[in-house]
Predict the 3D structure of the following.
Amino acid sequence: MGTGAAINLDTNASYGVLPEVIEGVREALGTLNPSSIHGGGQRARAMVELARDRLAALLGLTKSERIIFTSGATEANSTAILAPFLGTRSQPTEGSAQWQWVTSAVEHHSVLEPCLRLGRCGFRGMAAPARAGYLRTEEVANVVTQTTQLFTVMYANNETGHVTPLREIVATVRARSGCRIHIDAVQHLGKSTERLFDLTIDSASFSAHKIGGLTGVGALVVRSESSFEPMLVGGAQELRHRAGTENVPGIVSFGIAADVVRKDLGRRIERMGSARRFIEDSIHRDVPNCRFNSPAEGGLPNTLSVTFPGVRADDLVVALDLNGVYVSSGAACASGKPEPSHVLTGMGLSDDDARATIRISVRSDHTAHELEHATQTIVRAVHAGRSR
Amino acid sequence: MTVCPRFDTTPGIQTAGTVVVAMSGGVDSSVAALLVRQAGHPAVGVSMQVWDYRNHGGSSSRATCCAPDDFTDARKVASTIGIPYYVFDFESTFRREVIDKFVAAYERGETPNPCVDCNNKVKFRELRERARTFGAGAVATGHYARVLHDESGSHLLRGVDSAKDQSYFLYGLRPEELKETLFPVGHMTKPEVRELAREAGLVTAEKSESQDICFVSGSAKDFVQRIGRGVKGGAILSRTGEKLGEHDGIHGFTVGQRRGIGVGGTAEPLYVLSIDPESREVIVGAKSDLEVGEFFVQTPNWVAPSVVQHLASPDGAREFKALAQLRHRHPGVAVDVSILPDGTARARFAGGWTPVSPGQAAVFYDLSNTEVLGGGTIARR
């Protein structure tokens, strides 16, 4: 088994809490309720608002957008998807192309599941195929109409790193519909300098622990003029958008992480890119018969999806874990059984290949030694898996 | 290379690398993992997902395996002991090697032995192969059985707790597999195992054990009905062809069965004598009608070094005396075994006879009733 701390090549799952966060969160641990009138509440309130400002700075927001802190991106996605339909009735529609909601087939489950729920409530919708690994404008042009109330797509795919051509897609959607546009931007933060709200989108969701904040906290960022039915009611928090006493330590961690990332964003992206390329080149050189499912360029700088035919990904993940390297097989675990990834099969990979695929997602601060060790470990484990 | 001191008492025998412990979420495999860890081996706990309980009769009762509760328990135990824990997907292998064979056997009028198939193909073969990917050499389970290594090879012995002994299900292990298999609890009684679990604070210490087949909740009959091709009824006949009644599926019957036949009013109790899968006729008769003088095992697996060595030599002995156990919880009867030129084992009852059910496993033990010589599936007459 490995010596020393493990090498986290699974940052798309969780980056790992930043030292600045651990340090800075301490003072937030003793806070009281930010809604209280007294001094204790005011101190807590100030911390929350500072965090909000910091996240706004990273996102390049103006007064036209507001940040609503949530329990995570999953809640933000559910809210953005379900809220527009809450309190409305499903309408029977004539003709086949009248979808009330449209998304892509490669979305994260936190987007797909609420969409399916809409379907069960009688709201007709569809998940457009994305065989290229990302949603193409052509797929969208035929299905979005004036009947559509919601269009939602991810900024980038967490499993493969494919980045959606948002500018074109948003323009295409806007030309055809007045629907709400929601972007699952979980994999955007810390990996891109693009300003999402320069596009005419209505909302986007984010998650703190993907950039080194604590788990259990995220944000739904909405255009100020978009109103929506809150999912959680019973308190005036977040300007009546999301009831419930704020998770102050979590929110503070989000702000600190956002600040750290913003100050170094360009360099972080560059370092992620070179770490990913190093691993990709080494695997390509030392492992025969492997296929990369990530875009050669233009994708997330830190993400590498690779298929090793003849090796079971779940065995590989275990072998790597036991040797101190963390990766994932991109498979969802329901009752312990891994299902092949809907993203990979949606791209046309066979079930076997999907089950032979691992996802590597790097940090921005790996040492050369770590990258060497990690790559050798991967190569060794693949050879061991193939020599059964 | 490491030596296992506590449950492998012969010096010089080695286990390479990490030990993978098959953990079902029950107390026996929990303690097996504990003992492996205490002996100082690097160990990894693995639960095998073999059956998606959600799709087939899943309920919250403990009667089936692979419920999330079992994995949660196994995970907690692994955490308490301090070993990594993973869940592996074995569904397709299990379906092919255990479930399909189980249903097919019943549809053929035979009584299957799924635990044997699982041990042979899943637990001790596929699990071991997959574990090689991460450098594991030995497999440990919570079976009540023992392995003893000496100059002549590896011996498979009954567990010390005769009420719990599971050596009957392990006859299919090949000698080279036995060399790298550990049965840490085989030298303990069940109460001792529970006590150890309690002392170590394992959550499974008081967990009750299922007595049923792990993938069946309810009756095997209902299972086959659900999973099989569709079940049709037939006639129950006497030996002379007289129709005595009707049944609703041959999978409800086992040769030698007395209960549940559904025919009453005869002077003597009736036993199932044979089952014809083609005509779906079930022939019943008196117990004495079941008597046979011998039975055959078509492709036996020989485990004991003594037998293996004799067979390896062209002049080696092909006949020996043994005790044959024909069912789990069966006391075993004396037989004279002859190994025929094609490898089939013929077993002649040497003293009293016992009903023989085709499809069931016959396991031969040495005359001290301790060591497994080998075994196989009883052939149809």
